[in-house]
Write a structure and sequence with these properties.
Blueprint (H helix, E strand, L loop, with lengths): L8 E2 L4 H8 L7 E2 H12 L3 E2 L1 H14 L8 E2 L12 H11 L4 E4 L2 E4 L15
Parallel strand pairs: 1-3, 2-4
Antiparallel strand pairs: 5-6
Helix pairs in contact: 1-3, 2-3
């Protein structure tokens, strides 16, 4: 197989996501998948590990209070109870920014989260 046809994979460290998280403005959200999609496109790679992305954002959440980690959602717009302060803290922060949070059983979601997804291509570097 020629080198041009080989699929490129990258293992990204938490700090690789730091600048991207900082670019999510109040009132907007990203999903773990949208972070991965952006990073693969930006770096010209084909795959980033979903588990590593989730762990990377968690590390940043617990390490750097200045990053808006609470604006990063799980699949389907679900809030992440592993962030500092748990679900209630993330819910409070998102609602204070005008985002509607709803309960589905024991789980919390940003209602119609797709409407609030940040477009990283418009947010500069």
């Amino acid at each position: 197989m020629s080198s041009q046809n080989q699929k490129r994979t990258a293992f990204l460290a938490p700090d690789d996501y730091k600048d991207l998280l900082a670019r999510i403005p109040a009132g907007k959200v990203a999903t773990l998948a949208s972070l991965r999609e952006y990073m693969t496109a930006e770096r010209g790679i084909h795959f980033t590990n979903p588990f590593e992305t989730g762990v990377g954002v968690l590390v940043l959440a617990w390490k750097d209070d200045d990053l808006p980690y609470w604006r990063v959602l799980k699949a389907g717009g679900e809030l992440n109870g592993k962030y500092p302060g748990g679900l209630s803290a993330q819910k409070e922060k998102l609602e204070s920014e005008g985002l509607p949070v709803i309960a589905k059983g024991q789980r919390l979601f940003v209602k119609d989260y797709e409407e609030y997804l940040v477009d990283f291509s418009d947010s500069g570097k």
